[in-house]
Amino acid sequence: MSSVAIKTEPEARPARDMTSAYSNRRTFAIISHPDAGKTTLTEKLLLTGGAIEMAGAVRAKGNKARAKSDWMEIEKNRGISVTSSVMTFEKDGINFNLLDTPGHSDFSEDTYRTLTAVDSAIMVIDAAKGIEGQTRKLFEICRLRDIPIITFVNKIDREGRDPFELLDEIEEQLALTVAPVIWPVGQGGLFKGCYDLAANDFISAKGAGTRHFEGGLDDPALRQTLGEDAYAAFRDSAELAAEGYAAFDPVAYRDGHLTPVIFGSALENFAVDRLMDFVATHAPEPRPQPSDKGPVDPSGDKVSGFVFKVQANMDPKHRDRVAFVRFCSGHFKRGMKLDHVRSGKAIAVSNPIYFVAQERSLTEEAYAGDVIGIPNHGTLQVGDTLTEGETFRFTGLPAFAPEVLRRVRLEDTMKMKQLRRGLEDLAQEGLVQVFRPTFGSDWIVGVVGPLQLDVLASRISGEYKADVTFEPVQYNVARWIRAESEVKLKQFIKDNTTQVVRDRDDRPVYLCRDEWDLRYIIERNKEISFDATREIV
Ligand code: GDP
């Protein structure tokens, strides 16, 4: 999404030009457990990529400074990290699109959907803690989609666990082959820097920069640089790391079977540039995306993309709503009319925005792999497909059955309209699922993690001026129901009216007390399917 237009006429553009335009895109996310260092690493990547000038200080002047603080206020209220949803930067001819996964610890649909829009991921692990709960959950999602993962073992500048123990843990717990590529020289108090096992470069922790050793681990100059004791210990461990584990294999990595491991420090900026080089060299370019008419190839010359995230009220002063679109093919230009497949209508994309750190700018063009925000008033929903005259639909964006269900109680009944608006907006963002009972007027909301309820209440109060509380309902399990036979489904719904609610797309959802009740009802209604996930259409 560089501002420099590629000078070719769209109608005369040969296929090769399209390939060269998108093949320098790297669209990726960072997955980690809270506190492992995702924010610090993001900041250092932006710094290395020249998107921000000083660590901890986003470049901001005049109005932009205001926009930034507004943004941060919202993020603070939401209790999630202050990075924006997508950050684009360019280095050495490579366009990096870093998609933020929400920082709070609840597993949310939003996170899952963000991972549908990336081609690879960086997994950050705290060297003192190893694999933690959230890392594992996010990893499982990547595995489901065969997303290649680079592992960054962070905080190597301070006391941590033995590097071999960490490698073995990744290998065993995640069933991934590990290939160490950047290895630590000492650790904690004895930390001297990092060593690139393939390039034979030593990255000094003492600010002495990077030095190449032609003779590799046996180079006498390396011995001299590290000192006798440190050298002996390092040489043994580096040799074991290189010989005892798999060598980096780009094909196995891209297939999601092998993870290259980089030991470094986000805070001290050790090996972050190597990590970035690694993403540039080895991380996959935009991959074909699944659709109901078969995979859509990024080299296709017609524009296509899908909405993977919607965020309401990014700017509280202008009730705006931004739909984040991942492009999958073609050459998008500002002002283009795209077909909104769900409604069958064309929409003119006249003010597409892209994001550099906390700033937003208008973008003139985009290729496969790029992510832009399209401000709109509710036309665009998560899962929507945009095309240039074609009628296929991208697939693979799921909704998950909520695990926590609550009845919404409005403090001031005059605020019904605001509440409805807020629930609709936030349901579109994927923060919450909203269910309408057949009888009674109280909404039932469903979330995957309880923290989302707090976020929901504070956003409805802050952004829609309606105060709500949540009351327990007797149900804890929700399943979408469907059947081959419409008649059977209708009958089931009729027999269970009090337990069937409707989701926002009017699909029937069956609520029951617990898994035991669910098993009982499944057993007695073999012709009905009870789904824990459903595809968003
Ligand atoms: P996040 O929750 O994953 O976004 O983690 P943060 O980036 O906020 O980092 C959590 C804490 O770890 C902060 O206090 C950071 O300063 C610290 N931290 C991050 N990276 C490093 C590192 O490489 N070394 C050390 N010693 N501390 C780090």
Keywords:
protein biosynthesis; nucleotide-binding; eight-stranded antiparallel sheet; ten-stranded mixed sheet; 537 residues
Distance between the termini: 28 Å
- Mean pLDDT level: 85
Number of continuous helical runs: 14
What percent strand? 25-35%
Helix amount:
25-40%
Bound molecules: guanosine-5'-diphosphate
Low-confidence stretches: 1-16, 55-83
Strand runs, count: 30
Instruction: Decide which structural class fits the backbone.
Output: alpha+beta
Shape: globular
Strand numbers in spatial order across the main sheet: 2-3-1-4-5-10-6-7-8-9
- Mind describing the biggest β-sheet? 10 strands, mixed
If you compute it from the alpha carbons, what radius of gyration comes out, rounded to the nearest whole angstrom?
25 Å
Question: Could you explain the architecture of this structure?
Answer:
With 537 residues, this protein is an alpha+beta fold. 29% of the residues lie in helices and 29% in strands. The protein has 14 helices and 30 strands. The strands form six sheets. The chain has a ten-stranded mixed beta sheet with strand order 2-3-1-4-5-10-6-7-8-9. It has an eight-stranded antiparallel beta sheet with strand order 25-22-24-23-27-28-26-29. A hairpin with a 2-residue loop joins strand 16 (353-356) and strand 17. Helix 7 (220-226) packs across helix 8 and helix 11 packs across helix 12 (451-464). The longest helix is centred in the N-terminal third of the chain and has 17 residues, at 62-78. It is globular and about 80 Å long. It binds guanosine-5'-diphosphate. Guanosine-5'-diphosphate binds at residues 32, 34-40, 81, 103, 154-155, 157-158, 265-268. Residues 32, 34-40, 81, 103, 154-155, 157-158, 265-268 line the site of guanosine-5'-diphosphate (GDP). InterPro entries: EF-G-like_DII, EFG_III/V, G_TR_CS, P-loop_NTPase, PrfC, RF3_C, RF3_dom_3_sf, Small_GTP-bd. Residues 1-20 are annotated as: Disordered. Belongs to the TRAFAC class translation factor GTPase superfamily. Classic translation factor GTPase family. PrfC subfamily.
